[in-house]
Amino acid sequence: MSSDHQGRMLSGILIIIIGVVFLLGSLGKLNLGHFFSTYWPLILIFVGIWHLINQNFRQNGFSLLLILIGTFFLLVNWNVLGANFWKIFWPVLIIGIGLWIVLKPKGFKGKTPPIKDDDLGAFIIFSGIKRQVESKQFRGGKATALFGGIELDFHKTILFENQATIELTALFGGIEIFIPKEWKLVLDSSAAFGAVEDKRREVNPEDSKTTLYIKATALFGGIEIKN
User: Fold this and answer.
1) Count of the separate structural domains present in the chain
2) In a domain, 193, yes or no
3) Which domain holds residue 141?
4) pLDDT tens readout for residues 149-195
């Protein structure tokens, strides 16, 4: 069974379950307010499972993090954790972030040039940087913002053999990247409690000979791509 078919089946099952819940509520057999206030974490668990199946079990980090967070809040709503909630919330969250970093997918396997950290290797924590990338043979790199912000400007950059791959990660922080409007962008993104947004204007990727591949992941943070 293909991952696409599995994803459709899972989506169909979810719709059926939602319909049954509302039907029971309409018949007075179920208190919808109490049900949703207690079982809303199941949404996170379901999205995690759906994402895991939809990506053919390759993108484990993002999916497992959603499942972990959903399970945690479900146990809280069931009063399984009791008064220990705040004592273990942050340690569990930090563990989840660590698992996500370790297990998150590389993306674009076999389709893009390899990442070269020597060209771009930015990691900040509790701070911020602005960088003008002026390399004339840029091959790619990585940038990670943890409780801080990164701004990258590629308007003076020339890509090696007209293509490069960069990996952006925002954890409780933000990354803003500016690229020329003439470049073609191929974006692969994952976000949980955050967003990855393409805010470019006046783009014409069909006529472009230069391609930038971006693997973007955001957790409690944001990544914006502009020109």
Assistant:
1) 2
2) yes
3) 121-226
4) 999 999 999 999 899 999 898 888 899 999 998 899 999 887 777 88
